[in-house]
Write a structure and sequence with these properties.
two-stranded antiparallel sheet, six-stranded antiparallel sheet, binds zinc ion, single chain, 2 helices, alpha+beta, 161 residues, elongated
Length: 161
Amino acid sequence: MTSTSCNRCRAATEIIVVNFADGEAGPLRIRLKEFPLRACVERHHQFVRPDFAVELLRHLTEEDEPQLPAGEEKGLIMKKYLCESCGEALEPKPDHRHTFSIEVSLVDLDPFGVDLSMPVYKCSTCDKEQLHSLKEVRRLTPAAMAHAFEAANIPPPPGAI
Ligand SMILES: [Zn+2]
Ligand SMILES: [Zn+2]
């Protein structure tokens, strides 16, 4: 069995592009758009390559999410969130939900889109909108991504996420 044969029925697979798949975890919603996977004639789905989920998770949490506007988390028990621009407190209640659209390029694959939707909070002083904290988004990303893969009928490979 090679990495391109179906991991359930061992038939040959081909790469198909899925229009979109959604997943959420807590306040985070993820939409994977026009991303590739492998499908056999029986329509069993699997990752385009074994490390795809790990590569995507790493890309999102280490390269893309750190570029989103996000406050700074302070305090262990009573958490406070400070504006990344001026350092004043963010409003405690979210202003609205914002969708951040990201283009992800993984080695040897065509770029595809990932939408991250999260509540954004306004700074009470300078009005800049931002996430409460990057830590929170990064913590929720693995579960939201796993649910998007479930929505695309890709069973998680053992121990991947
Ligand atoms: Zn199959
Ligand atoms: Zn501010």
